[in-house]
Automatic annotation (TrEMBL):
Pfam families: Glyco_hydro_17. GO terms for biological process: carbohydrate metabolic process. Its EC number is 3.2.1.39. It catalyses: Hydrolysis of (1->3)-beta-D-glucosidic linkages in (1->3)-beta-D-glucans. Keywords: Glycosidase, Hydrolase, Signal. Belongs to the glycosyl hydrolase 17 family. The lineage of its organism: Eukaryota, Viridiplantae, Streptophyta, Embryophyta, Tracheophyta. This is glucan endo-1,3-beta-D-glucosidase.
Length: 372
C-alpha cells in the first residue's frame, strides 16, 4: 500500500517567521547537536545529509550505529560525531579482546578524518526489555574505554551510555530525583566509571511523554517552554519555567544521592512529535514547532539549568528526519525536522526579534528538497 504523508499546510505567518529567522544560524551553537536516526527506508544518502547539516551550521550529530558509509561521508566535514555500539553486541564486549577488535574495525579506520568524539555503548540499557543486557554494560564501557586508550585514540573520545528517564524512581520535584532501587548496584558501578573517566551522563528526556501520560495535570506551556508560571522546588527554592530543565536537574540530584558529584548531565535526546495517534495528546505541528523553536532559542542563549547555572546544557535534538520504519505509536515516526525527501516536516518557531539575530535566507529551503 502506498503511503502518502498528508502534509499540514504551512501557515503563512509561520513560514514568514521561519524565512526571516532561518534555523541555519542557530546552529553553530557549540552545545547543540542533532540525532541522525536512520530507521527508515527512504532517507537521502549520507553525503546529502552531511550537506544538509553543514548548511544548517550544525557541528554535532549522533548516530545509532557505526555504519561505515555514514562514517566515511562525515570525513573532512566540520561535524563531530557520536556513534553507538548496538545493544545486540554488548554481550560480546564482555571480552577485552573483542572490544579491542571492535574499536579497531569500527572506529580506528575513520580517524582522524571523521571527528568521532564519543562512543555510546548501548542505548537505554537500564530500561531495555531484555533485562539480561544490563549485566554487560559496565564491562562493555570499561573494555571499550581500555581499548581506545590502548590504541592511543582516547584523547578526544568519550565513552558513555545514554539512559531513558525511566531510570528514575522520582523526578518531581527535581530535588526529589532518585534512581530506581533495582538498578542501584549497576548504576553505582556505571557512575563510578563516568566519574573516573570524566565522561558525561547522557539522558534521553522527553517532556512530551510526561504530558501525553497526564495531559490534565501537566501544563502544556510548561512542557513546551512557552511562557508560564513554572514551579518552585520547595527544597532548593529554585524556579523552573520548563520541564526539560527540571528533568535534567532531577538526574543531577539522583546522581548526587548515589554519592557522585561533578558528573556532567547532558541531554542525548529530546524532541516533540509533529503528529501522533488520537490518544497521544499534544502531538502536533504547532506544538513541535514551539518546543523545538524554544529549545533552540535557549540553546542560542547558552542556557543552563537552575541547579548548574554556569554550565551550558548540551542538548541533542531528536531528530533530523521522520523515520518511517520505527515501530510503535504514530508519534515515533514523526519527530523529524525533515521529511526524508528534504521537505521540512516542521518549522521550529523562532521569533527573530526575541532572538535578536537576522539571518540569511538559506537557499536550501527554497527548493525544500534534498535530491538523492
Ligand atoms: C519523592 O519521591 C518518592 C519516591 O521516591 C515519592 O514517593 C514522593 O511522593 C516524592 N515526593 C514528592 C514531594 O513528590
Amino acid at each position: 500500500m502506498a503511503t502518502f504523508i498528508r502534509r499540514m499546510p504551512i501557515s503563512y505567518t509561520l513560514l514568514l517567521l521561519f524565512l526571516s529567522s532561518d534555523i541555519g544560524f542557530l546552529l553553530g551553537v557549540s552545545s547543540f547537536g542533532i540525532n541522525y536516526g536512520q530507521v527508515a527506508d527512504n532517507l537521502p544518502p549520507p553525503a546529502k545529509v552531511v550537506e544538509l547539516l553543514t548548511s544548517l551550521k550544525l557541528t554535532k550529530a549522533r548516530i545509532y550505529d557505526t555504519n561505515p558509509q555514514v562514517l566515511s561521508a562525515f570525513a573532512n566535514s566540520n561535524i563531530e560525531l557520536i556513534v553507538t555500539v548496538e545493544n545486540e553486541i554488548l554481550n560480546q564486549l564482555d571480552d577485552p579482546e573483542q572490544a579491542l577488535q571492535w574499536v579497531n574495525t569500527h572506529i580506528k579506520p575513520f580517524l582522524p578524518d571523521t571527528k568521532i568524539t564519543g562512543i555510546q555503548v548501548g542505548n537505554e540499557v537500564f530500561t531495555d526489555d531484555d533485562i539480561t543486557l544490563i549485566q554487560y554494560l559496565v564491562p562493555a564501557v570499561t573494555n571499550i574505554h581500555n581499548a581506545i586508550s590502548q590504541l592511543g585514540i582516547s584523547t578526544n573520545i568519550l565513552v558513555t551510555s545514554p539512559s531513558s528517564l525511566a531510570v528514575l524512581e522520582s523526578s518531581y520535584p527535581p530535588s526529589n530525583g532518585s534512581f530506581k532501587g533495582e538498578i542501584a548496584d549497576i548504576m553505582t558501578q556505571f557512575l563510578s566509571f563516568l566519574s573516573t573517566t570524566k565522561s558525561p551522563f547522557w539522558i534521553n528526556a522527553y517532556p512530551f511523554f510526561a504530558y501525553k501520560d497526564d495531559p490534565s495535570e501537566i501544563p502544556l506551556e510548561y512542557a513546551l517552554f512557552n511562557p508560564n508560571p513554572g514551579m518552585v522546588d520547595p527544597v532548593t527554592n529554585l524556579h523552573y519555567d520548563n520541564m526539560l530543565y527540571a528533568m535534567v536537574d532531577a538526574v543531577v540530584f539522583a546522581i548526587s544521592k548515589m554519592g557522585f558529584d561533578g558528573i556532567e548531565v547532558k541531554v542525548s535526546e529530546t524532541g516533540w512529535p509533529s503528529k501522533g495517534d488520537e490518544d497521544e495528546s499534544g502531538a502536533s505541528v504547532e506544538n513541535a514547532a514551539s518546543y523545538n523553536g524554544n529549545l533552540v532559542r535557549r540553546q542560542m542563549e547558552k542556557e543552563s539549568t537552575p541547579l548548574r547555572p554556569k554550565m551550558a546544557l548540551e542538548v541533542y535534538l531528536f531528530a533530523l528526519f521522520n523515520e518511517d520504519l520505527k515501530p510503535g505509536p504514530t508519534s515515533e515516526r514523526n519527530y523529524g525536522l525533515y521529511e526524508p525527501d528534504g521537505r521540512i516536516a516542521l518549522l521550529p518557531k523562532l521569533d527573530p526579534l526575541h532572538v535578536g539575530v537576522s539571518a540569511d535566507f538559506n537557499p536550501m529551503w527554497k527548493s525544500n528538497i534534498i535530491r538523492p
